[in-house]
Amino acid sequence: MGIELGRFGVWQLESKISPELAVELEQLGYGAIWLGGSPPGDLNAAEALLDATTSITVATGIINIWQVDAATVAESYHRVAAKHPDRFLLGVGAGHPEQDQKFVKPYGALVEYLDALDAAGVPVEARALAALGPKVLKLAGDRTAGAHPYLMTPEHTRQAREVLGQGPLLAPEHKVVFDTDPERARAVGRQTVKFYLGLVNYTNALRKLGFTDEDLAGEGSDRLVDALALHGDAETIGRGLSAHIEAGADHVTIQVLDSDPLPAYRALASVLL
Q1: Model confidence pLDDT, tens digit, residues 135-166
Q2: Contact 141, 147 (CB under 8 A)
Q3: For residue 91, which of 48, 25, 32 has the smallest C-alpha distance?
Q4: Domains annotated on the chain, with CATH
């Protein structure tokens, strides 16, 4: 594909990524910035980051198909891609049934959305699909550059690569807490992880990875939190992130949960990049 992501990138909520931070992340050597939190269809935030930088790729992680119609996002895509060729990846996905009242037959809705992007001239190689289960992973491989799994482990990455086969992009997200105190780090990780334990698409996927009802109960077991929000020093976290690459990922996008993520991104860059 023409769009280069590098081995490691950064995932942050759109509201927490400034052009100044993007410049430093590019200088540190990260290959991509993924904008989370269901960015709006105007893609203005992505464009601002691309304007401020020279080489780093910007991706959406993800545009919610229930919140932004395909025609709107396609028009924005063409504006951004024309200005910054081969530097923008359009990540789309179906979100969560608990949050989207329109969430009906999501697989069919994804197919229709991709059909509309095709009709609007958005290239297959310039888009990615949020995917957890085999059916949507296969769709990602068939109709987009590849898959962007969220809140999963290296074992999921291994299984996803088996479904995708060689060739399609596999770019999982993973959360980290840059803290060597386990109890303090778990408390930070749990604050984010617990939200997803009320979302059936994530709990179903986690059960298939061997996590039990006990792990998923309440705010999550220590075992679950440790797996989904890596913690420790840069070397320890770096080994955990690299396990995704060893399992078949092309690119891992790192979500630092610390209130100030920059020290962690700087420390991890020295280990990973």
Answers
A1: 999 999 999 999 999 999 999 999 999 999 99
A2: yes
A3: 32
A4: 8-173+251-272 (3.20.20.30)
